[in-house]
């Protein structure tokens, strides 16, 4: 696994029978900005669903590396971040976050833990934002979402996913699924199974051909190289009283 302290971002991982799991932009060279790719952490706001900064603040903050080891075929990395009540003016709460990833020969697990260490309750949305590497987006397929209620940014009248196997093309795609069933991702060459706990929705996103040209840290043609399948909490925000905790896990096999 490769990773960085900024945002506790997992940048890359390889499964022996699969190869590279995540996409990382070759233009992601700024050590002081979140990388385009890998697995960013989103907290305390998902995207532009509230009044805070898009995707929150923690992907822009330096986390502390607490564990990094490779023993008996298991690679583990763990980062922590502590936010005090007055650290973020627009979000005056106290929280302790932990991101732990464990890579085994047949699976990768990523766990996001959040604890309210402040004096007041807070509500948050967010989750994980993995960029899955695919050979060609137009040959990628995602199974397991048929019949799930959706909110589509570009097709507001669409209510339910109709496709047995979801396929994307060069058009921008942003669809929030109101459910978190196990999914199968066919990358064009290999197959991955995605499952989540704690999170209760999937977001599927790709900027498309036109959107990619508006992203300075993404090569114009690289919209074809990834699909974001994100385990999140959006429609039902998590509320934590002082001392309460949340745990959300993504497992990739």
Task: Kindly describe this structure.
- With 253 residues, the protein is an all-beta fold.
- The chain has one domain: Beta-galactosidase, Chain A, domain 5 (Distorted Sandwich), CATH 2.70.98.10.
- It is 2% helix and 44% strand.
- The chain contains one helix and 20 strands.
- The strands form four sheets. It has a nine-stranded antiparallel β-sheet with strand order 6-7-8-9-20-17-16-12-14, with no helix packed on it. Strands 5, 10, 11, 13, 15, 18 and 19 form a seven-stranded antiparallel β-sheet that branches.
- The radius of gyration is 18 Å and the shape is globular.
- The chain starts with a strand and ends with a strand.
Name some characteristics of this structure.
Beta-galactosidase, Chain A, domain 5; 253 residues; 2% helix; 7-stranded antiparallel beta sheet; mainly beta; 9-stranded antiparallel beta sheet; 1 helix; globular
